[in-house]
Amino acid sequence: xxxxxxxxxxxxxxxxxxxxxxxxxxxxxxxxxxxxxxxxxxxxxxxxxxxxxxxxxxxxxxxxxxxxxxxxxxxxxxxxxxxxxxxxxxxxxxxxxxxxxxxxxxxxxxxxxxxxxxxxxxxxxxxxxxxxxxxxxxxxxxxxxxxxxxxxxxxxxxxxxxxxxxxxxxxxxxxxxxxxxxxxxxxxxxxxxxxxxxxxxxxxxxxxxxxxxxxxxxxxxxxxxxxxxxxxxxxxxxxxxxxxxxxxxxxxxx
Length: 254
Ligand code: G
Ligand code: G
Ligand code: MN
Ligand code: NA
Known about the structure:
cyclic-guanylate-specific phosphodiesterase; binds guanosine-5'-monophosphate; 8-stranded mixed β-barrel; alpha/beta; TIM Barrel
């Protein structure tokens, strides 16, 4: 209950911050986009992982309010970077199940775009596979509305959920993000290699982009690039960092 109250006050107390991680085009090495990830600094206990506090935000419904703050903050930051002349093609924002099911989702996304002055094509939403499979009919409807608005959608943590190919065909999404658990063994474990290569080929056969997350070294980067993966994200390039550090990173990258 205490933690609930603290999370609930988190925006006003400036205890939530966003950190940003670059996404790199594997074929030309250019900075392509950035993923925004939320952090919570507990007034007493310090930094808390989203793995701990997102479930609490979800169960209490506080995620709706925080989710709107996350979207608005990420889009405003992208606008600043674009005004500073940084070439960033999109900001990716994670949506959780409660947000995705909320009937005001579309409205609040539109509002965040309007408030920030960012065009819809610069926003990418990351949704997990399992979230989409909860109610496929309504998921398809919501995804179509995003598509009509020009917003792009990525299936996050791909491969860890149910991964039905027939559903994948029905979802109007733009890209798949291969989960970091497969990238970990992508140069050494035959199963991870097989799954990663198959995912890249399948995504391309369906006209989708593929991004790999959790890229930590040159060997993984080279393997993914040589197997046609479009984009990469991970500690090899940069961990998630605050906006000031990201500005510095981006101006010195390359
Ligand atoms: O950022 P990591 O750095 O620790 O994130 C852990 C988990 O929390 C990931 O599964 C990630 O998708 C999720 N997460 C991080 N930021 C957000 C966010 O802004 N919204 C939602 N819904 N999930 C997030
Ligand atoms: O939203 P998603 O589930 O994709 O969250 C990404 C998670 O992966 C975050 O917790 C982020 O901090 C973490 N992450 C980002 N890059 C790396 C990496 O190179 N290695 C590992 N192990 N984790 C990473
Ligand atoms: Mn993500
Ligand atoms: Na992921």
